Amino acid sequence: MILSIIFIFIWISYLFTIQILDPHNFKNTIELRRNPSKQIIVSERGSIFDRNQELLVGSTRLYQIDLDRNAIIKYCKRNKNKQTSDVYQKTSKIIAEHTTLSQNSILQKLNKNSTSGSIYISGDISETQLTKIKSDLKKEKIPGLVENFCEIKRTYPKNQLAARLLGMIQKKEEKDNQNSIFDLEGICGLEATFDDELSGKFGWQEIINDANNKRIPLLYLKKREVENGNSLILTLDSDFQEILEENLKTGLDKYKAKNAIGIIMVPKTGEIIAMTGIAEDDSDKDDSHLRALSNFPVSFMFEPGSTLKPITALLAIENNIYTSNDEIDCREYHIEGEDRIIKDSHEHESLSFKDIIAYSSNVGISKIVEQIGSEALYDRMIELGFGRKTGSNLAGESSGIFRKLKDWQGYSLHSISFGQEISVTALQLANAYCALANDGKIMQPYIIKEIRDENDEIVKTFRPKLLRTVSNKKSLDTLKIFLKSVVDYGSATATKLDYLTIAGKTGTGEKILYGEKSYSEEKYTSVFAGFFPVENPKYVIVVIFDEPEYENYSYYASISAVPTFRNIVQNIINLPQCDLIIELKEKDKEFVQMPNLIGLTKEKAVEILRKKNLFYNLIENDKNGFVKNQYPKPKVSFDKTEVVIVILDKEKQENQNIKLEFKMPNLIGLTLREALAEANRKKIKLVINGKGIISSQSISEGSKIRFGEKCIITAN
User: Which of 227, 356, 485, 515 is within CB 3.0–4.6 Å of 361 for a Cys-Cys bond?
Assistant: First the structure.
């Protein structure tokens, strides 16, 4: 009892000393543990998609994983049947199965130095990989995995597609140079232009851990929710972009050019469908290097050459200075009062106004521009957007070079009329041709269609924006005929397609020698700008080759830029989702109403069909009979090119319903164009759902069908 009393007294004294007198300064330690620390929650950077929701740029979180060997050793001691070497073996095998790491390299790290302490395994583990590793280790009840967020890495499912346009990011440096918060920022391309939308805002939460470093769940701890970045939906089409890039790469090698540039736009809206710039040494650069380079279509400036001649011609058309057939002297021209002679690469005595554009005569356009004057030409160039940025808001965009009217010299009026003394970008030139194709309406070019939040809700939608209107439809329709003549029989006949009308203009721009005022004799810029179809332009395309080979005449646009343009057009109309040819065919169809031939003699029925210029096929069950049936039926509207079927039979079969039967072909796997052609041959009416390749048909292959029967097909 005495001993117990003494022990209790000593114990109470000890507790009093520890808790009240606090000789070991435990109070500060307790307070420190009660003070919450902030855990930073890194935001997700928004993704970038094309117009069809195909992912162009995404993000993945990377984690660092370590293995705590002390935890594994303790685990083996608790489980006598477990050997440390066996657990190491099993652990390394699991990690290797879900990563690119080899099992041997992981084992070497685990067995390095001592058998205790934490060991670094990798800092390049994705969330998916980490989840699988944790799951397998949990199944095996193996402890010791330590995970920590490392960084966010951008991913590019389509590899180098649109690399310069999309741009790149880097880790954002804090002002005090302490990188306590992981944050990314765009440094070029769309990543830089729309960095505020893509980046989001980091969040944080307060946490308190106990002595075992386990989190204590307390309700009063504060938290700020993370705001993930928004995603961009572009007007860009990946298929068009791929077509443009592949054809420019082919042309770059074939014509041995220094750079190749291209852009595809929708003239009615100003949407940029594809844009790219490629340098001759791009193949030697890695992906990250390419993404850091300038976007040529908006940054590279060049003299557009003869592609500006249509602008001068349009002014002459508007002011009725010349008519299309007016002849103009195009012989070598000495400008009065100036020490300058203008001549053409191919000599002409005289050309009509239209043929001056078709054959690209410098002499002819120089005489025309004299009738227009400097002020009118200057004003039109400004209206079309030359000398200033287009408003596309693309990073690195140049305004080009176009001097003010007061700075023009004696040669300037003539030079600018055929594309000298002015520098433009591909986007400026494409937008000007969009105006020529779109009844003079100048639209603001744009590449962002929508901005969406992390829940896929639309935050902002971008719509076509009309900036101003120049010229008038009547004058522009005349100019379209001029530009069509360039392709039909002029300087760009290599572009001509039998099934599609194309209008455009070639340009072979001389390059000024660096540091000098004179032009080089061997360095040129080859350009072709055009649109199609002429009647209702859907696309404007500009193709540029910078310094193509001189020796084999590739510097002529007709030899380099023109055939490349043609290949791009052919690739576009062959896309499964492109129904341009179908639309043109439907537009060209002439529908007529079927006359009633029932009861008529053969001679009378044939007479009526011939008068209406209809194709027909007679099925004569009785040569002396009467028309007992016909397809199409009376008063039914049909395409005039379809073949009418007329059935002649005996009079006693007058009330008999004669059926004409065919077998259903297999349409699955065909394109819409191929399916429509096959259906026309079989006289089947197709009801089309979707676009692309036929995946199903409502009438199975080989089934008997009647003339004109409907079949529902699904394409995707």
Answer: 356
